[in-house]
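ENTRY TYPE: paired fold submission
RECORD: A
CONTENT: sequence, then structure tokens
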Amino acid sequence: MAKIITITSGKGGVGKTTSTINLSAALNHFGKEVIIIDANLTTPNIGIHLGSPNVPIYLNHALIGKNEAKEALYLHKTGIKIVPSSLSLNHLRGVKPEKLIEVAKELGKFADFVIIDSAAGLGREAISAIKTADEIIIITQAEIAAITDALKTIKLAEKINKKVLGVIITRFRNNEAEMNLDDIRTMLDVKILGIVPEDNYVKKALNAREPVFNAFPKSDAARSYKKIVAKILGDSYVKRLEDEESILHKFLKRLKIKG
């Protein structure tokens, strides 16, 4: 049975969906079968980000019992499988977010990881996504409003006995306008899984409808997501990543010498 991880955020616009896609792409790189569920029912973006917004069957159909969950499963060219939600407001009628747990468990038969892209905030959709998870990852940025909302999400997860793996700080610029990392650690009191720097390649990948991990694998953002996933998977994957980077370093050094 797959591990179910919900990617959530207290605040919108912090890179939650981008992180969901790229963490999934990195898991796939390490040989894991991954399914992404777009549980952001009112404002879904997974299909848009991956170039497949219009399909015959959506998560919405599974949540009203019209179709089986596996019928809403689509294979992206990267190797990631996705369950998109509909952009149509008509498809929100009768949808029951509480049924997400049944859908996720059913899809878990076909993957190593089910990654849920939650709605932002602490509304009904987000709470259903958090309740469905085995573990939670919270996406935030290093500014006070986002950190405050991240803290609320952590407290909610703890209240319903859900394990918070940690937080990922995105679009990090390391300037005076952002909170100090030590202050963030103290305020949130959970592990910082990684820091993804501000990177223009993320926008370029979005325009290409691909994960930055696949479109620009040498970019700073792609490397950050890869390191985060290696850390989540454990020491053997960290060692594998270090070996990959060592081989790449030697290759680039050899090219430089030849040049």
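RECORD: B
CONTENT: sequence, then structure tokens
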Amino acid sequence: MELKQQWKRPMPGKRYTYQEYYDWDDGKRYELIDGSAYLMEPAPEWGHQSIGVKLARFIDEFLDGTSGKVFQAPFDVRLNTDAGDNTVLQPDIVVLLDRSKLSGTGCLGVPDMVIEILSPSTSSRDIVTKFNQYLHAGVPEYWIVDPVAETVSAYILDTGRYVCTDYGKTDEAPISVLNGCVIKLSKVFVD
């Protein structure tokens, strides 16, 4: 009698911790939000990836010679390691200025900046669910990049709430957590 391999994977309606998330081995990518598993879409479209590469490259060049680091997904951001450890997000881009937060496959605690690039299947999660997770955790800067509209909504944390500034393709968008870093969006929204 041949034994079938049992894949470790999330079951609908069940709540999970980071350790359970880390043990899943069904070959798919997930995010964990307040213990609930969310399946990540297959690889994003090329325009999404092109924007991500350009943004990460500009930030990486700015950080050259500093202790800061920029990372692209997949990269685990564990926002509440001290309170249940049941939220693991996979932002498109993460900026960390404090290397002591690096651990294994990602970041323990709150990163300095997160960038999400909208995709049709995940845009509502990025705009609502993850927005609220980042706000509640105290992420200082959160950008939502819309590749179709060619816009950036930059949310800066100010006394417990996000203040938004919108930028278009012809604008220059400053990164507040990186004093002096300004990104020319005309060089991001190209192709």
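NOTES ON RECORD B: Residues 118 and 146 are 5 Å apart (CA to CA). The mean pLDDT is 87.
STATUS: closed
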